[in-house]
Amino acid sequence: MARHLQFSSSSIKLCVTLLLTIFACSMATSYSSCRPKETKMVVYLQDNGPASPYASGVVSAAPDNSTARGYILTTDNRVTEKVSNKSCLVGRGLGIYTIASPDGNDVVAFISFIIEKGVFSGSTLQMQGQHSQLDKVREYAIVGGTKKLRYARGYVILEILYVNNTTFYAVGKSTLTFQYGCTTY
Ligand SMILES: *[C@@H]1O[C@H](CO)[C@@H](O)[C@H](O)[C@H]1NC(C)=O
Ligand SMILES: *[C@@H]1O[C@H](CO)[C@@H](O)[C@H](O)[C@H]1NC(C)=O
Ligand SMILES: *[C@@H]1O[C@H](CO)[C@@H](O)[C@H](O)[C@H]1NC(C)=O
Ligand SMILES: *[C@@H]1O[C@H](CO)[C@@H](O)[C@H](O)[C@H]1NC(C)=O
């Protein structure tokens, strides 16, 4: 019995040593030899505005006033390959936008870009940031990704190309620049 216990404890020590070695090796790998892949992607966000079946205000202090603090818009927008909304669908932009500042100007946005076409099909990119209602060009951080795009990080420049002031239909050009593939950078 005693011998058996002794055997167990030394084999535990061995495992711990082995684990530490593996951990040290993998840390060394990620710092020195992991080169993240860098990708640039241009897609177009077809924003149907608050009055479409693709979007709806949910828990909102001011459901009908998109410049009032507390207004919350959820979106399920089409993302296309070209500027025309009839061009090839490459994915969807699921988002939550809310007015954060008392003057109604500052928006906080959280967007999941669900990719449905191409090499990253089935993967997602997660973006978040702040913009002013008046900004024609916005920048959000890409803070992560899933599946093939795990550990993604970078930024997206969203340029508003067109807004219909009656329907709020809008088209934005999104230029995404990001790295992925390494656990540390
Ligand atoms: C919407 O909210 C803003 C900011 O609180 C306010 O100035 C404006 O009068 C409101 N508009 C309407 C139509 O209630
Ligand atoms: C496409 O854009 C036009 C305006 O350019 C708009 O009237 C139409 O509703 C849009 N179609 C879709 C499917 O969003
Ligand atoms: C805005 O959309 C409406 C409805 O689709 C359309 O009748 C109108 O011409 C559009 N306005 C502009 C400036 O494109
Ligand atoms: C739509 O509204 C914006 C902001 O108020 C304004 O700058 C723009 O000229 C308007 N566009 C049209 C076609 O009326």
Keywords for this entry:
single chain, 185 residues, alpha+beta, AOC barrel-like, 8-stranded antiparallel barrel, 45% strand, disordered N terminus, binds 2-acetamido-2-deoxy-beta-D-glucopyranose, Dirigent
Description:
It holds the Pfam family Dirigent. Its main location: secreted. Belongs to the plant dirigent protein family. It contains 1 helix and 9 strands. It is of the alpha+beta class and 185 residues long. It folds into 2 domains: 33 residues; 144 residues, Allene oxide cyclase-like (AOC barrel-like, Beta Barrel). Strands 1-3-4-5-6-7-8-9 form an 8-stranded antiparallel barrel. A hairpin with a 7-residue loop joins strand 7 and strand 8. The longest helix is centred in the first third of the chain and has 31 residues. The N terminus is likely disordered. The chain binds 2-acetamido-2-deoxy-beta-D-glucopyranose (4 copies). One 2-acetamido-2-deoxy-beta-D-glucopyranose binds next to loops.
